[in-house]
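Bench notes, afternoon.
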Amino acid sequence: MTSGRLWVVVALVFVVGAVFLLSSDVADSGSSVAAAPSSTMPVSASLDPADAARLADEVVSGDERRVREVVALPSEQELDPAAIAGLAAMGPLAFDLGTFRDRGDGRAEVVARDGAQMRWLVGLLVVGGQWRIELAEPAS
């Protein structure tokens, strides 16, 4: 793995880890979290091609506002511009809809490939009736 590629992986792991830790800390304190699972489930327990394309395009857009629209983050969570740039460097991103697995609790998993064909296991979370990216880790 090249040093640039390693930096992108580290940036993604950092963003996802920070989201997870902050969500856990806020949940443990009894406060509400913007990214908490929604009681409104998607119409179907699948990821349709249009939603997959939207998630993929927005998360690697390089625009903080667009990334926030598809990543499950507490509204007050700051995003490091370097992390946004690292996500953009991964593009394009494509989800393999054949790997989608609904966990039945407002969460799902799907495999994605980035621009360098690295495979990612992407965790999705229902927020406001739409899938958002909750986490991502290199897939085995």
